[in-house]
Amino acid sequence: MDKNQMNMQYPEEEISLKELFLALWRQKIIIISITLIAAILTGIISVFVLKPVYHSKLNIVMNMPEIHTTKYGDYTLPLTTNQQYINLITSNNILVNTMKDMGYDAKGMALEDLREKITIGPMTATANEEQNSFEVKVAADNPEEASKLAKALYNNYVEFLDVMTAEGAAEYYYNDFSVKIRSSLVELETNQKLLEKNQELLSQTPQTINQKEAAKEIKNSAGMLDYVILENIINPNYTELELNIIENKQTINTIENTIELYKTYLEELDMLKVEIGQYYETGEFSELQSNIVSVSKTNISLPSEPVAPTRKTSPSNTKNVVIGALLGGMVSVLIALIKEYWFKKESDK
Fold this sequence. Notes:
Helix content: 55-70%
Distance between the termini: 35 Å
Number of strands: 8
Order of helices and strands: HHEEEHHHEEHEHEHHEH
């Protein structure tokens, strides 16, 4: 391509661009009208049709231990990280009880609808340090409902953690004490048999030994003896059997007391299991005096109560109007170009 050809192309491009702007200018009424109509419609829909969304925040601080100390012993908790525990906030049991507290179940709200209203903030744990502060947002149609929902969710969350811990510990210790009772009964039976045997031996063993009678027998067989002989002395075998019997009785008494203690623990655990069953049926849980269910009290806290938000999170009316205007402008430009070139060419034919 030579220089003359290049110089001839520039005026054509300038004319072409000029014609494009002139064409848009001739259709400016259509462009402005459609853009305004789109912006106004978007604003009306944003204000009057779309439901407002308000978010209330929960700043939950937790430091869950690996082992929880109870009156029955040290119980190893089932989960190992705070992240695993915070993810439980959207568990079905928590959501079901929260829906009951908020009256959502009567309104026909689905479980998944409530789960979508809950957002857990990003996890920021590092390899060397575990995250212990979490932000949870709950959404609602008005500020007061958002605050109430956040409080109900948190209360049901900490209650569920206590129930979950109590259920796991109750099952663990119930099985543990049941095994210990069976083992203790075997040990008790062994010691009772040993006691009977020692008592029988004791009844057949003389309490004292007559040394004179024994000496006569020795004298008859070995000759004269040169030492003083007492008539009666305590039989050491008898004394040893008495000590064994005392030890047997003490051991049996200790085993029986231990079995009774284990049975008392099993009765307490039975009561706890009944309450746990009622929780899953009714959503209500009465805390026992046992510290087996107090894991949330010392390890989870809410530094500040959730408050009603002062402004809605979405929809943003300004943003929606701007987006509507941009989309309307794009559509109007397309319509203007079609009208200017397509239909004009058809009319020229």
